[in-house]
């Protein structure tokens, strides 16, 4: 008997009718002779709604309480789904992350899974029940409820698939798979039949939110193939797996983007050893994730350091810089409304001139590049947020990605 883990995102369980159709899908999967585990997200945008309410009460809500609050969203979904499955004459049991044996670090709102005790899951599967696990949550060593960061139900699903040595891990969402650009932004975007882990990691890291980055890291580490597909159709979707010879290595497979970057520039810092260590040490202590970094040395013995952070982390970054700027004898400026556009493709490694083509296409459309970073299979440009959507369409066309 095969073990199948399926994950359903918020739009797939947005209301009672959707929950009933997910219930039907799960019963059908079991009827085909499989043991079924389903990881479920909170209904629709309910996590956003919970966060808004918390912020109506407090500008800086305690993170432990945020986790208690967030975790309720996915528990509502699993409980309702269990009832819907029972109405269809099948047996199901809903479990919170803690009940499912998901142990995490104590970092509230961004915890990492440390261990999964899958005994209860296995026993319940063997008893013939469909197991429904509330996504994106676990329990810390202090026995507090934790959550795994936005989009974290993907990670729950992949981690459970690994722990149970599942035969398949399917991620059901509101689009038919992984596309050459966000299909909600670029109508001509094409669905990719297969994507390597390496490409998917770069895509997820540069803004393709269809899979949470950490879920892809997990899948690659444990060699779990993922199928991303729509809960509204029977299309086979996109298979994310280890690269093989048969896979077409497109020079550029996809254009990704983010619209929530802020840029900080430290002006005229002394050009001497230890400055970058001080600046980024202070940011690390404040748990700020820095994305792109650029440092220019001038002839006058000072240097400007620019870097980007996600906008949510801007206040924490500013606080950290305020503490060290006096000591360094420097000041900083902020570009709040920034975004990033990237091209990703495994074939780029052995193909010169790809970056130049990207820069030319942006220049031809009057889009100014403020920062650039590259990896062997990705080129990213930080640009003004207002120009991101246009840039994505321009690059999609420039690299002939449409059908
Ligand atoms: P879920 O609630 O199912 O987890 P998400 O909203 O997290 O769904 O992810 C699906 C969304 O990801 C799509 O609706 C789409 O707008 C967005 N997306 C961004 N880039 C891509 C891409 N390259 N391919 C597919 N979807 C993408
Ligand atoms: N409900 C959570 C979120 O909106 C987790 C998830 O859907 O994956 O981020
Ligand atoms: Mg998601």
Structural features, described:
The strands form four sheets. The protein has an eight-stranded mixed sheet with strand order 3-6-2-1-9-11-12-10, sandwiched between helices. A six-stranded antiparallel sheet has the order 14-15-13-16-18-17. Strands 4-5 form a two-stranded antiparallel ribbon. The protein has 403 residues and is of the alpha/beta class. It has eleven helices and 18 strands. Helix 5 packs parallel to helix 7 (213-222), helix 6 packs antiparallel against helix 7 (213-222) and helix 8 (275-285) runs antiparallel to helix 9. It is globular, with a radius of gyration of 23 Å. The model has no long low-confidence stretch (mean pLDDT 95). The protein binds adenosine-5'-diphosphate, aspartic acid (ASP) and magnesium ion (MG). Adenosine-5'-diphosphate (ADP) binds next to loops.
Describe the protein's topology.
Blueprint lengths: L1 E7 L7 H16 L2 E7 L5 H12 L5 H25 L4 E4 L6 E3 L8 E4 L2 H8 L3 E5 L2 E3 L5 E3 L5 H11 L4 E6 L20 E3 H9 L7 H10 L3 E5 L7 E4 L12 E17 L4 H11 L7 E5 L4 E9 L3 H15 L2 E14 L9 H11 L6 E5 L2 E7 L3 H11 L5
Parallel strand pairs: 1-2, 1-9, 2-6, 3-6, 9-11, 10-12
Antiparallel strand pairs: 4-5, 7-8, 11-12, 13-15, 13-16, 14-15, 16-18, 17-18
Helix pairs in contact: 1-3, 2-3, 5-7, 6-7, 8-9, 10-11
The protein binds adenosine-5'-diphosphate, aspartic acid and magnesium ion.
């Amino acid at each position: 008997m095969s073990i199948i883990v399926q994950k359903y995102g918020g739009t797939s369980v947005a209301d009672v009718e959707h929950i009933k159709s997910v219930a039907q899908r799960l019963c059908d999967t079991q009827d085909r002779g499989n043991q079924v585990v389903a990881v479920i997200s909170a209904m629709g945008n309910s996590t956003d709604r919970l966060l808004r309410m918390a912020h109506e009460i407090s500008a800086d809500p305690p993170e432990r309480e945020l986790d208690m609050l967030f975790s309720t969203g996915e528990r509502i979904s699993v409980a309702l789904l269990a009832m819907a499955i029972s109405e269809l004459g099948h047996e199901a049991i809903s479990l919170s992350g803690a009940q499912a044996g998901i142990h995490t670090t104590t970092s509230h709102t961004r915890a990492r899974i440390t261990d999964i005790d899958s005994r209860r899951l296995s026993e319940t599967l063997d008893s013939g029940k469909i197991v429904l696990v509330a996504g994106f949550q676990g329990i810390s060593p202090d026995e507090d409820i934790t959550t795994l960061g936005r989009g974290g139900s993907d990670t729950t699903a992949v981690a459970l698939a690994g722990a149970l040595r599942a035969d398949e891990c399917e991620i059901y969402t509101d689009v038919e798979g992984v596309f050459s650009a966000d299909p909600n932004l670029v109508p001509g975007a094409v669905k990719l039949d297969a994507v390597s882990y390496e490409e998917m990691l770069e895509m997820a890291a540069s803004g393709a939110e269809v899979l949470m980055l950490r879920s892809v890291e997990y899948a690659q580490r444990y060699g779990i193939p993922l199928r991303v597909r729509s809960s509204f159709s029977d299309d086979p979707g996109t298979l994310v797996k280890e690269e093989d010879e048969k896979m077409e290595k497109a020079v550029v497979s996809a254009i990704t983007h983010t619209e929530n970057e802020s840029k900080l520039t430290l002006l005229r810092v002394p050009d001497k050893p230890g400055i970058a260590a001080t600046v980024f040490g202070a940011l690390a202590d404040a748990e700020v994730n820095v994305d792109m970094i650029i440092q220019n040395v001038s002839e006058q013995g000072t240097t400007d350091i620019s870097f980007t952070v996600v906008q949510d982390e801007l206040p924490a970054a500013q606080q950290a810089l305020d503490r060290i700027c006096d000591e360094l004898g420097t000041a900083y400026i902020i570009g709040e409304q920034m975004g990033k556009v990237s091209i990703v493709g495994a074939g780029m490694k052995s193909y010169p001139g790809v970056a130049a083509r990207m820069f030319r296409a942006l220049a031809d459309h009057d889009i100014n590049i403020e920062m650039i970073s590259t990896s062997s299979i990705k080129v990213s440009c930080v640009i003004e947020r207002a120009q991101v959507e246009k840039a994505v369409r321009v690059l999609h066309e420039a690299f002939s990605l449409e059908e």
